[in-house]
Design a protein that fits this description.
By secondary structure, the protein is α+β, with helices and mostly antiparallel strands. The chain is built from 4 helices and 6 strands.
């Protein structure tokens, strides 16, 4: 029973870590990356769809993203969505391709991006702490129902704390790596 709670908690920690990695991939650095646009939601065919399902996205150069829609009628819709996004990049199209020239980030913009990274990391850490509290509550519930004894409760709480510390350390490292990537010129 304790192992069930711990396994569920560990799985949620892994999901939180993956979610942060995925989330930080959308923050632009000085280099072009498909992650900046591939999950951008586009209103296509009456429903929101991620861009990577509507177009082929490639990075032929370090400062250029090329988007080739599978359906050329979607080019204006995709272009409009990119303009309305918070990317800060103006798309250009030739009727069949959309090109995004990724400009060099200014020092001020880099600092803003670092703050944004820190905010996202902190949000995930808050989520981890909430999940820790829920796991500990689950363990206390097991003890209240006399399914585990007090020693098992304390061991379970220690294990939850160890998993939390490990996840927090990993989240901080992911954040630090992304900050270094954003600040690199």
């Amino acid at each position: 029973m304790i192992n069930d709670v711990l396994n569920e908690f560990d799985a949620s920690m892994k999901k939180a870590t993956e979610a942060l990695k995925h989330n930080l991939a959308t923050i632009r650095t000085g280099r072009a990356s498909t992650g900046m646009v591939e999950h951008m939601q586009i209103d296509a065919y009456g429903a929101p769809m991620p861009l990577n399902q509507l177009a082929n996205i490639s990075v032929p150069e370090s400062r250029l993203i090329v988007i080739q829609p599978y359906d050329n009628t979607m080019i204006k819709v995709i272009e409009k969505a990119i303009q309305n996004s918070d990317l800060g990049i103006n798309p250009s199209n030739d009727g069949r391709l959309i090109r995004l020239a990724v400009p060099q980030l200014t020092e001020e913009r880099r600092r803003e991006m670092v703050k944004h990274v820190r905010t996202r990391v902190e949000d995930v850490k808050v989520s981890v702490r909430n999940q820790r509290r829920e796991a500990i509550d689950d363990l206390k519930q097991l003890e209240a129902e006399k399914l585990i004894n007090e020693d098992d409760l304390h061991r379970g709480q220690e294990r939850v704390q160890q998993l939390t510390d490990r996840a927090t350390k990993e989240l901080e490292q992911i954040g630090a790596d992304k900050e270094a990537e954003v600040l690199a010129v």
